[in-house]
Amino acid sequence: MPHLMNTYARLPVAFTHGEGCRLYDEQGRTYLDALAGIAVNTLGHAHPRLTAALVAQAGRLLHVSNAYRILEQEALSDRLAALSGMDEVFVCNSGCEANEAAIKLARFYGHRRGIEQPAIVVMEHSFHGRTLATLSATGNYKIQVGFEPLVPGFLRVPFDDIAAIEHVAAHHPEAVAVLVEPVQGEGGVRVAHHDYLCALRRLCDQKGWLLMFDEVQCGIGRTGSWFAHQQAGIKPDVMALAKGLGSGMPIGACLAAGPAAGLFGPGNHGSTFGGNPLACTAALTTLSVIEGEDLLSRAATIGQRIRQALTEGLEGVAGVREVRGDGLMIGIELDRPAAELTKLALAEGLLINVTAECVVRLLPPLIYTAAEADELTVGLVPLIRRFLGA
Ligand SMILES: *Cc1c(COP(=O)(O)O)cnc(C)c1O
User: Torsion over CA of 304, 309, 311 and 317, rounded to 10 degrees?
Assistant: First the structure.
């Protein structure tokens, strides 16, 4: 056994290389990737433009320190601001760090307004990361148990339920912000209604709260728009990004606008590695390829194609509760725990995932072709039917 902490129930396969939407294991077996390293490999594997950009950057400069200007980081902040309409960017290395920055911003904002114990409204079934603050914000007891005492300052409400949050607004003067995933990922691919997101925007404006979107999983083109919330026609005050931003290079970002911008000054927050030239080059190249290869519209159309094939192929199958999602973020909710399906799929050369126990989750790279989408659904539908005994 390797000397690794036993933190993952890993499938018994190791990949040696990949190309496009395929991965290859030690035995030379081929797999169709419908997970993308959990929404990370936006451009699939070994994308020639990303490889070339990283090789060139690695030959110039990997890391300097945020004690100096970093041109690639400045360029990335400009690009993200232009795509999102946000004002400022803090660059970090992961999703939990992006959320930590958001949580710190909200508390800082609260203190500025004279609220000494500021609280952030968070959702049931949410996932925000594994650090102490982000696991405390997470709406999943399994992720918290054993790590108490939790970080205080979170108020929990049901997801996609505006009445519940209005109730909190009426009774909690210490609330200063809402943190929500426009599409919950780990929680089972649950898409918030656009009406709900718009109502949240209005409530935050009324109360002077920060509207903070965790788009770590649903952002960067996955739902067919640069950011999932853009489909509701609104803008948050804070947004967390990571996963797909670097297409495999670790990078995260916390974006701020309006009342959340201009809060932090030197010394309030930082990161040794955050925003190094190599990671920023990965992100800049990812964004440029998404635009150049028109991957937003592809995510929308291929996602629609997959959902439609699944809906038709699984129609009337007892045990299938719902096929849902947005773009290339797709969930198939079953009536029973489905972890076993990842093993059955692996044996068939398909890489899928199961989350929230009963939800088969598909997060393909944004470069999926119609042929790859069909290969996925033609393989997956009979597997699910067989698994359910249908
Ligand atoms: C994965 C995820 C995180 C945590 O990101 P890490 O990079 O693992 O720290 C936070 N929020 C959401 C919505 C995620 O999907």
Answer: -160
- Residue 9 counted as domain residue: no
Assess whether 153 and 104 both reside in one domain: yes
- Name the β-bridge partners of 91: 253
The answer on 304 and 283 residing in a single domain is no
How many domains does the chain contain in total?
2
Of 273, 254, 277, 275, nearest to 264 by C-alpha is: 254
Q: Is the CB of 91 under 6 A from ligand 1?
A: no
The answer to whether residue 8 is domain-embedded is: no
**Helix 295-313 vs helix 370-387: crossing angle, to nearest 10:** 30
Contact criterion met (CB below 8 Å) for 78 and 247: no
Q: How far is the CA of 236 from the centre of ligand 1 (A)?
A: 18
Same domain, 298 and 288: no
Does a structural domain hold residue 7?
no
pLDDT, tens only, 23-59: 999 999 999 999 999 999 999 999 999 999 999 999 9
Q: Is there a catalytic annotation at residue 264? A: no
pLDDT in tens, 307-348: 999 999 999 999 999 999 999 999 999 999 999 999 999 999
Q: Is the CB of 333 under 6 A from ligand 1?
A: no
Residue type, 303: G
pLDDT of residue 390: 82
Mean pLDDT calculated for residue range 134-143: 98
Q: How far is ligand 1, taken at its centre, from the CA of residue 134, in Å?
A: 9
